[in-house]
Amino acid sequence: MPVPAFGLGTFRLQGQVLIDSLSTALELGYRAIDTAQIYDNEAEVGETVAASGIPRDELFITSKVWIANLSRERLIPSLKDSLRKLRTDYLDLALIHWPSPDKQVPVAEFMEALLEAKTQGLTRQIGVSNFNNGLLQEAIEVVGAGQIATHQVELHPYLQNRKVVEFARSQGIHITSYMTLAYGEVLNDPLIKAIAHAHQATAAQVVLAWAMQSKYAVIPSSTRRANLQGNLLACDLNLSASELQSIAGLERGQRLTSPAGIAPQWD
């Protein structure tokens, strides 16, 4: 199954806030869920999904392996722990959340372990997140580009990560955009607002539609029902080629996520 174009992100959502957001999203029709070991919400995701009664095969669940679990000894046990918390026998997609800082764990070691997790049936697909092109090339050399279902990166109108996108696509690797709304900053952009007005849409819908029409998957999050419902409508919004081109012109290299001591040297 290809990575769904639209899903629910759960970054920064924990406890009852997460349960309420995910419950509402599932009720509205969301079926793809993105979590991570470091988000400390896998158990609540599992609890909410179980309570929803939605059959497992109708859902697409992604989680990400944290840097502390990248060694050969820890990666598979950490994924089994994630599955236990998520109350499922398998993930649809398991990602390396960040490459190992300073290559403390070699790319070959964690990619081989991740591929072994797939072989064991712990995950249907594997991928990476927050890699630069050199690290992605190393990952490809270990498992083959065909094994990498997606590369999840920060990508929004103000940071379009074009070198990373171009290299991934040259290898046939799909891109997932996270932080697509740039913490809401792009929603106040005059161009985005003007396009939204022309379509009688919200600014968020315009940005999400731009990303999806650019062939990126998106995983926006929200704690408000109206926003969750509105974001979902972005799937039905069609922007013109000139509007897409105008939004592409907003690029300004504004990176919002680059944790010190973890982030690689960006392209």
Low-confidence stretches: none
**Cross-sheet strand order for the largest sheet:** 1-2-3-4-5-6-7-8
CATH superfamily name?
Answer: NADP-dependent oxidoreductase domain
Instruction: Compute the number of strand runs.
Output: 8
Could you give a short account of the major beta sheet? 8 strands, parallel
Order of helices and strands: EHEHEHEHEHEHEHHEHH
When the domains are counted, the total is 1
Write the layout of secondary structure elements.
Layout (H helix, E strand, L loop, with lengths): L7 E2 L5 H14 L3 E3 L7 H11 L7 E6 L6 H15 L4 E6 L10 H13 L3 E7 L3 H11 L4 E7 L7 H9 L3 E5 L11 H10 L3 H11 L2 E3 L6 H8 L8 H8 L19
Parallel strand pairs: 1-2, 2-3, 3-4, 4-5, 5-6, 6-7, 7-8
Helix pairs in contact: 1-2, 1-9, 2-3, 3-4, 4-5, 7-8
Describe the structure.
By secondary structure, this protein is α/β, with parallel strands linked by helices. The chain has one domain (8-248): TIM Barrel (Alpha-Beta Barrel). Helices cover 41% and strands 15% of the residues. The chain has helices at residues 15-28, 42-52, 72-86, 107-119, 133-143, 162-170, 190-199, 203-213, 225-232, 241-248; strands at residues 8-9, 32-34, 60-65, 91-96, 123-129, 148-154, 174-178, 216-218. An eight-stranded parallel beta sheet has the order 1-2-3-4-5-6-7-8. The two termini are 30 Å apart. The model has no long low-confidence stretch (mean pLDDT 98).
